[in-house]
Amino acid sequence: MKKILYLFVAAISLFTSCDNEQDPIFDDSPETRINNVLTKYKTALTKDDGYWIAYYSGSAILMKFNEDNTVEFESTYSDGSEDRTISYRVSITQVPELVFESHSVFQAIYEDNLATGEYEFLFDKVTDDRIDFISKTDKGANKTKLTFFKGVPEDIATVKKIISKMEKSFFKHVSVEGSNYKAMLVTNGGNAIWRTISKDGKIENKEYEFSMTKDGLVFSPAVEIEGVEVTLFDNQVGKDLFSANVEGKTINIEIGNAPLTEESGVYEEFMATNFKVINGYSQALSSIVPSLKEDIKQFNAFQIYVEWGYLLGYAPGHEGGNWAGFSKFAFTKAAEDITVVTWGYGAYGAWWSEIYGNDGGKLLLEFLTDPSGLYIVKAGNDTYYLVSKADPSKYILVG
User: Which domain of life is it from (predicted)?
Assistant: First the structure.
């Protein structure tokens, strides 16, 4: 299912008279009326310096729409690597649409995840401080939505500070003041998992769409906690804390250092499937793959064989073979939800030394073999997070 996103839009109905024997309903021609509508929409985009901010697929995107049909981007996606100034147009096919005429951060996010992205939007509703869009290409009633909120240049810096706060640790603890309620929040891009502990000690997960905005953390649909619904947790400046006050309840999300409770049996579940691929890295480890690609152009991903003890880089077409890396790893149980990984310094393949000598390869080996161990956190069906016990800002997603 594609994500619900936020943006600023306008909807209008255009009418023409088909009866030549009647006086015209409008003084202007259909072409003039259409041009007036498009001018109105462009004016909405460019007024008051033209700044708008959108929260799209887990990223914040600040845009400055200019009168000369250019738009400037500044975003949190991929450390801003896709930010640039491009041309845009407000045009019409069947209904008014906003068209980015060359590659932008929207297309980059779409290409990164075809299942949850979109980059062609139709105007839906327009107000002074908000424009709502709907997908141009989605079929059926459940269309992707995007909202632009009126913004200022400082908004993106505020969001970046919130992201830095959230990246301090994988573990985010939820509590209600004056209550025994406890939960843990797991976030990944535009998705969030709310993990609660049932009365019989089992962990129950519920998924939400999620955005980090200039005001704090936004969930869709609203999270239900002890009979109240919460959409926004306000950022508490200067504290590792986000809070909501609803119907007399104060609910906090606090950055933590460890799980709320041990997850019984998770080590055995993790070890039950030999083959795994590293599918994601935290911000603290995000340099691993780009660094490797500088030396190994075909590098695709790391594969882990937990039973056989291999960590292999996969680079199809690379000279010397598609795979190379390391052997003689052991994943030892240190607690119900902790594994300690040791390496017997075995090597595999012709180009293992290219990984070993690379800063990205070194960082991954240091992370995996930290003697403090790794927390194992179940993410979904045979997918897991491995989180550094010594530094929980470092974690990977495997599955």
Answer: Bacteria
